[in-house]
Amino acid sequence: MDDPKLQDYIAVIRRQRRVVLAALLVSLAVAAALSFLQTPRYRAEAELMLRPSMSEQLLVDRAGQVRSARDSERELNNEIERIESRAVRDAVAERYDGPLDVDDVAAEAPASDSTDVVLVHVTATDRAAAAELVNLYAETYVEVRRQSQIDELLAASEDIQSRLDSLREEIAEVSQPLDEIEARIAALPADSPERARLEDQRTAVLQEVLPQLSPLQSREASFRAQLEQLEATQDLTRTGGATILTAAEEPTTPVAPRPLTNLVVGGLVGLVAGIALAFLRDHLDDSVGSKEECEQVTSLPTLGVIPEVDDPGRTGELPTVVDPLAPSAEAYRLLRTSVRFLGVESEVTTVLVTSPAASEGKTVTAANLAVVLAQSGERVLLVGADLRRPRTHELFGARQAPGLTTVLLEDADPGAATFAVEEVPGLHVMPPGPTPPNPAELLDSQRARDLLEALAHTYDRVVVDSPPVLPVTDAQVLSRSADAVLLVVAFRETSRRGLGRALELLGQVAAPVVGTVLNLVPAEETYGGTPYRYEAYRSRSERRRRRQQAAAPEAGNGAPKHAANRRIVLRPGSAPARTGPAPHDPADT
Q: What are phi and psi of 344, to 5 degrees?
């Protein structure tokens, strides 16, 4: 089997277009219902401007570094975590007594290059309550952060002061010998010989303690500088390093639902789901949906592809009689050509038309095939051998009896049970006759075989309308008297399993099945998906005449002159003469 092509996928979607359309409409309906039935929700948000924490700024300033973008992003993420922390939420919950849940408030960085702004927002159905909660949350966070900064400042000051005090004690201890000499020198007169000796001793002690004293004094100076910088950052104690840049206002436009977005998303989801369902349904579909599938199941050629009637009210079930230029009539003429070529190697006189199951169009196919054969100049007899659900006589407006069963029961001869169709020269019809209680036994009789053999010698072509294969055995019985059996397959109605079983049953009696007829094919599926419009071959005057005829009211009652309303004239027939000119095929006009 050939690999599927793009055209095959398109064909599947076209065949299952109702499924795709249904899924699309259902998805759109659900999206619309959700959009218009859902209560509108509003988003209130406030903007916070953040600064680095005091301790981090001190460390950066001491190291002489500049914050990188990565550091700023890390700090921003830390602050977002702090905003959404349980400590902040609990502080807000103590102050908030509104209808909303404090835990619904969230923080995020805006979608911009700014790394120092955080959005605090909440989404709710109550617009005023949402704005109130966001503002309270932002204010509480600023206060909590300010208190945290104050605590951090106090802790840092205390820590530095403690270290400074310890350092001063160490400096005092190191400089104690020097301080003692200084005190003794200060107590002596300036001209005292002891003073000169002590000054020389002070110089020696200073040189001894100076290497230890200088680092300690440098550290002391650093600690004092840090204390001074802490005092210079007292503004952080008022703002906590965060300020409300933009307070939340009561929103006017809902953020949910969004009907247009929902419809677009719903349409895409429905389209994808519809296409998936279409391929699944097509894969699980057991019916015959193309000429290729029919030939694959039967391993037989498809002799005809019969389209659906475009205008049943105008052509009825016999377009070959009423409108010979209709596409379906041309399709029957193509079938006629295929049947004629069957007789190239062996004579094909009796053609049996059957189908796997009922209501697949075998009777209409047999009748139109008989008409086009007669229109080509052959002497044709259409035998209504479907004694279960007889319809052949109805297509031509004939009586059901006398007919085939009348002849088989020897109540009439074949000539008395045959009617000629006036509008189709060369066409004769043998109705089914009265319905017998035992159709299979009657058709399996020797008299039935002799009758069909005699009719084959009388007419150029005998077309037999047979019951379907699967329900009854009549078709198997009749096939033994036929030169060729045509199996009618209804498009998207005949199952592949049923078609295979019908061929199996006919094969058991060695029926000469020569091919299939794919019937009731939609116009867009005919000829590979491109409908072949035979209307274009009509002359302009002919098309104009037909339009005028269809529009003109019927004299007397105002009914339109549709060709399907014309009465087909029948007359009692007899065995036709084998001489005379061939009838004229209306399609040659």
A: -70, -45
Q: In the chain, what is the straight-line distance between the N-terminal and C-terminal CA atoms, in Å?
A: 43
Q: Left (φ > 0), alpha (ψ -120 to 50) or beta: where does 20 sit?
A: alpha
pTM of the model: 0.60
Return the SS3 of 244: strand
Residue 88 · residue 148 · CB < 8 Å: no
The tokens for 164 are 């400074």
DSSP 126: -
Residue 404 in tokens: 């085939």
Q: How far apart are CA 133 and CA 248, in angstroms?
A: 9
**CA dist., res. 400 & res. 516, Å (int):** 28
At 31-84, the pLDDT tens digits run: 999 888 888 999 999 998 887 655 545 544 444 455 555 667 788 888 889 899
Question: How far is 244 from 254, CA to CA, in rounded Å?
Answer: 24
Q: Is the pLDDT of residue 515 over 90?
A: yes
- CA-CA-CA-CA torsion sign (542, 545, 546, 547): positive
Return the DSSP state at 41: B
What does the pLDDT read at residue 532? 40
With tokens 């206060």, the residue in question is 143
- Examine residue 586 and say whether the peptide bond preceding it is cis (omega within 30 degrees of 0): no
Find how far residue 250's CA is from the centre of its chain.
Answer: 40
* Amino acid making up residue 241: G
315: Cα separation from own chain's centroid = 39
Instruction: Tell me the one-letter amino acid at 270.
Output: G
Query: Mapping DSSP to helix (H, G, I), strand (E, B) and coil, where does residue 212 land?
Result: helix
Distance CA 364, CA 384 (A): 11
- CA 187 to CA 182: how far, in whole Å? 9
The mean pLDDT of 256-273, rounded to a whole number, is 90
Give the integer Cα–Cα distance in Å for 516 and 296.
12
- Residue 319, C-beta contacts closer than 8 angstroms, at least 6 positions apart: 309, 326, 328, 329, 332, 368
Q: Where are the alpha helices (DSSP H) in 316-420?
A: 319-322, 327-341, 362-375, 392-395, 404-408
> Quick check: 420 and 571 in contact, CB under 8 A?
yes
SS3 4: coil
